[in-house]
Every structure is written in structure tokens, then in C-alpha cells.
């Protein structure tokens, strides 16, 4: 039985820590590949960080994409031209008073499926619709979920229960390594910049701290978020057709350009709302 060792690389704090632990031999056996599923919408500092990771000449990093998520949203289609894949936008019929959130489909389509297709076709060499040779090849997939997010691992395990040819592994949880400990390790590994949290610039899973960070560190990315936020409410757009409620990327349900992002949120609120989760090719909440 051939074993393949693959890292889901989101290029955020946790998955970068794993990549560097493999690179330095702290984790073994060595991975064969790291896969970065690119939505085409990450902040510029994430792409710069990804380039830095690639410059280390460690295990090969495959950057793969099925399309630019924001463009597909604006045009009301998904990556295959079907109905659009929704992002977890906030909804309300009363601006300023959030009522709910729509279902998230973007992670599966633009990240999970991209990683799976890369493994099936590019790495294992299967043709479209060919059965996975589960008696010959098994994939050990490493996921950057830290000890403080252990609840997510249960959901990932459930998803993997339907994938007989792959086993999910959580080295950070096994070693009780938290996100804060990852940040310490990144410093110890000599990363010469702060590793940003990876997420699409318009991802609604963002705290005010993170909106301010985006505005101050990637003004172009922040403008892109404003553009997509407006597109979500433009009358006649497919993305909001048949919806009684309006969609917003900021949780206050105010247009992002006007949202009071200076408002402080407690750490408890931020973690409760899931803002510290890294959408790095993992299954969603
Ligand atoms: S970062 Fe947010 S918007 Fe982007 S794919 Fe993940 S959940 Fe969707």
C-alpha cells in the first residue's frame, strides 16, 4: 500500500506552523505535498507570505484554484457555471439589526473540492470519475487545527468518515499546541514577518480587529471587500434573488464602507463568533 502525506495549507498561523515543523524535521515522515486552495481573494500579505514559504524550497507547495470566488459571486454563478456558492453572509430585513446568516458553500467548492481534485487527478493520476484505488493508495492528510479549536476536529473527522481513501491527522491537537503557541513557534522558526490569518478579504468571519487590520495593511483588499459587500445587495443580482432579506459581510448588517469597525469586541465574543478560525481547506461549521 502506497501512503501519501499531504498538508492542507491555508498559509495562516496553524498550517504554516505545521509546514515549518515538517520542513525542520520536527514532524515525520516528511509530507509529499502541501496544497494551497486559492480562492483568488486572499489579502496581499497572505500571498506574500505564501511566496516566502515557497522560497524556502521545502516540501512542494501546489497552489491550485477553481476560479475567483468574488467574481463568481458578483455574476451569480459558481466555479462550474451553476448557481453561485454562497458565502456565510449576515442577513436582515432591518439594516443595523442582524437576523441570521446564510449557508456557507464556498469552503467546500473553492477549497475542499479543489484539494480533493488535486489529490485525485494530479497526484494520484486518476481520470475524471475513476474510482480511487483504495487498496493501493492511502492518503494521510494533515490539518492545521490547534488544541484550542479541538471541537472542529470532530466535524472534520465526520466528513472524512465518508472518504475511505484518506485519514485526517491533527498534529497540533495531538501535541496540545494552541494558536498562541503556534505564534511563538513561528517566531522561534525565524519567520521574518507576522503571519496573517488566511481568509478571503470579504469573508464575513471577521472581527472588527481584523477588518481594521485589512483596511490598514491591505487597502486594495479592503476595497475589494467593500465592492463585494455592495454587490451582495445590488438589486437584480442573482446572488440575492428571491431573498426577502439583505446580505452584508459585516455582522452589524451595515454596509462595510459605513460599519463602525473601530468598535472593540471582547476576546470572548470574537472566539465565540468563530473569528479566529482559519478557513484553510477544512470543513465548515
Ligand atoms: S474564507 Fe470565508 S468567504 Fe472565503 S471560502 Fe472560507 S468561508 Fe468562504
Keywords:
8 strands; Rossmann fold; 10 helices; alpha/beta; globular; binds iron/sulfur cluster; 5-stranded parallel β-sheet; 285 residues; 3-stranded antiparallel β-sheet
Q: How would you characterize the overall build of this protein?
A:
By secondary structure, this protein is of the alpha/beta class. The protein has one domain (2-272): Rossmann fold. The chain has helices spanning 13-23, 44-55, 69-74, 106-123, 150-160, 171-174, 179-188, 208-217, 219-233, 267-272; strands at 2-8, 33-37, 60-64, 90-92, 100-101, 137-142, 166-169, 246-248. The protein has a 5-stranded parallel beta sheet with strand order 3-2-1-6-7. A 3-stranded antiparallel beta sheet has the order 5-4-8. Helix 1 (13-23) crosses helix 7 (179-188) and helix 8 (208-217) crosses helix 9. The relative contact order is 0.20. It binds iron/sulfur cluster. Iron/sulfur cluster (SF4) is lined by residues 39, 87-88, 104, 106-107, 110-111, 199-200, 203, 205, 279.
